[in-house]
Specification:
Blueprint (H helix, E strand, L loop, with lengths): L7 H4 L9 H7 L1 H8 L2 H4 L1 E4 L3 E5 L9 E5 L11 H22 L3 E5 L16 E6 L6 H6 L8 H8 L1 H4 L15
Antiparallel strand pairs: 1-2, 2-3, 3-5, 4-5
């Protein structure tokens, strides 16, 4: 038997969005986390103008990060244009960072838009970026529908945070090419 107690809050629905919009603004974790200003504790790697980058606390694989807009929107058509541009630019940089730091052979990039599409927090869209390797799906994942991650979140945070430490305004992490 494998034990994953950190998933209980999600499975039990304790981390899900409330149904009333007025409650969502105060209880949405993607609204609460940037307001708390406890970046290391919340695994926030970077704060941009329109988005922030953080580790997924329910990762599917080591290095699983997310780009989240500050705007509390659940559909792409409501996302401000500037936030969309910054989100994709950060996503592009994260694929390079994960490739370098984790020696990823590829990356999964995507969004689950709406609860029916699998969004755990359907009212606040966010982009997932995950490093991948050939053969990274093993028998436990395939047979037991369970993931075994060898690296704890504080270790992942410590590995990725230096790439964002010097990022200010339009400056990019060392070795990451600037946007064209």
């Amino acid at each position: 038997m494998l034990w994953s107690p950190w998933r209980y809050r999600y499975i039990a629905g304790l981390d899900r969005q409330p149904e009333h919009p007025a409650e969502a603004a105060t209880t949405c974790p993607f609204c609460r986390i940037p307001a708390e200003k406890r970046d290391a504790e919340n695994f926030v790697l970077y704060r941009g103008r329109h988005n922030f980058v953080l580790l997924n606390i329910h990762p599917y694989i080591n290095g699983h990060v997310m780009v989240v807009p500050y705007a509390h929107v659940g559909v792409l058509s409501a996302l401000p244009t500037e936030a969309g541009y910054e989100m994709f630019d950060l996503t592009r940089h994260l694929t390079e960072i994960l490739t370098r730091e984790y020696r990823a052979m590829g990356c999964n990039v995507g969004m689950n838009l709406g609860q029916a599409a699998g969004a755990g927090i359907a009212d606040h869209l966010h982009m997932h970026i995950m490093p991948r390797w050939f053969g990274d799906v093993n028998f436990v994942t395939t047979i037991g529908e369970t993931r075994v991650l060898p690296e704890e979140l504080p270790t992942t945070y410590a590995r990725l945070r230096p790439y964002f430490a010097e990022l200010e305004g339009n400056r990019l992490p060392p070795g990451i090419p600037a946007s064209a």
